[in-house]
Amino acid sequence: MKRVLLLGGTGDALAIARGLSATHVYSLAGLARVPDDLACAVRVGGFGGVDGLVAYLGAERIGLVVDATHPYAAQMSRHAREACAIANVPLWAVRRPEWQAQTGDDWREARDWRGVVERIAEFHRPLFTLGREPLAHLDEIPASQHWTIRCLDAHPGNARATIVDARGPFTPEGERALFDAARIDVVISKNSGGRATEAKLAVARERGMPVVMLARPELPDADRAFDDASSARDALTQLNHET
Fold this sequence. Notes:
Blueprint: E1 4-7, H1 11-17, E2 25-28, E3 41-44, H2 49-59, E4 64-67, H3 74-87, E5 91-94, E6 107-110, H4 113-119, E7 126-129, E8 147-151, E9 161-165, H5 172-182, E10 186-190, H6 199-206, E11 211-214, E12 224-226, H7 229-242
Parallel strand pairs: 1-2, 1-4, 2-3, 4-5, 5-12, 6-11, 7-8, 7-10, 8-9, 10-11
Helix pairs in contact: 1-7, 2-3
């Protein structure tokens, strides 16, 4: 049986982790909620770059790495690819498909933070669903705007920003209530894919509201890639039966 290192922090990763035995390791960067009901070992914290990950793979006798990090955690995915190549350890990855624009959607792509700011300049009540990044820009909010920022953890706002700490999955009903209460007129989102946070897009569509969509970073290739957690979990089960 190959010892698996699962790089996680997403719902997909947690679904895979629930099927792992005590032999294997579920690794979290430290920003996500740490589960306490898993059979596998849970490791929290960074590895110290590529060199640190290579050392960890050797010390812990890891035989397979599964990258199920967030689609925007590009640096961790690149480190995993480089470390696995150096250590000669296979790398599997869960690459969740992007959302696709539907009839009625008004999506406006941005490549980076500067592009986001440019695309929301005409609006007054933006909803940011980019995680923590907007928190670094609270002192840059124009006088014409009030930001609503949704992220995982509580954080103080200011006179021009309201911080909402919440975790998905989100429902259309809940999103409508938030949009109404905060008087949202534009949504800023990562193209994360999956169902847990998709409701905001449906509500924006039904209201004819624009969505500024932050483009995905380019991710490295993997030895084997899966579209969803269930496919990766099934492949791991088969692998354990074969080894």
